[in-house]
Design goal:
The structure is a homodimer of 92-residue chains. By secondary structure, chain A is of the alpha+beta class. Chain A has a single domain, classed as Alpha-Beta Plaits (2-Layer Sandwich). Chain A has helices at residues 13-25, 42-55, 70-74; strands at 2-9, 29-32, 35-40, 62-68, 77-80. Chain A has a four-stranded antiparallel beta sheet. In chain A, α1 packs antiparallel against α2. The two termini of chain A are 20 Å apart. Chains A and B meet through β1, α2, β4 and β5 of A and β1, α2, β4 and β5 of B.
């Protein structure tokens, strides 16, 4: 399994919502409005890259995917709190 | 030097602009609307954490700072393109 952080700027609102739903469907959790994280196996990582290719189609859209080793993940710092509007709240 | 990725949700527009200017002032470059990256020495990293503490004061604001080793940074993937409106364009 590998830890990923996905960060995106998607211009179109409806498309942005669909991307968020897709990221949740492969097991990622939201940590900010436009950032998700989670641990993926190699197949799911390929799915993620395919999803990103599809959703970054408009030239105003950009998505970054960072894969973090355990040590880098442990060094992350969060300032402030994120309150997911839906149920699954990610507590840091 | 350490490679950082800073990702933020800042509710207030004027405050968000000031944070972006601060991040640029310590040597970071924008890679997306609300994401910056760059390499910082230990003093600048402390400055960054202090800046994040200050700017994540409103309970709707959140900032994540990830520090990436060279290997993790080399594995990053960018989908789509980011066109900085100002001069310093970051080419991936």
């Amino acid at each position: 399994m590998v830890r990923v952080v996905v960060v995106y700027d998607i211009h179109d609102d409806e498309k942005r919502l669909r991307l968020a739903a897709k990221l949740k469907s492969i097991g990622l959790s939201r940590i900010q409005r436009s950032a998700f994280t989670g641990k993926l196996d190699s197949q799911r990582l390929k799915d993620l890259y395919r999803i990103c290719e599809y959703f970054a189609s408009d030239d105003r859209d950009i998505i970054h995917v960072f894969t973090l080793c355990g040590y880098d993940w442990s060094r992350r710092r969060a300032f402030g709190t994120y309150r997911e509007v839906e149920q699954n709240v990610v507590i840091f």
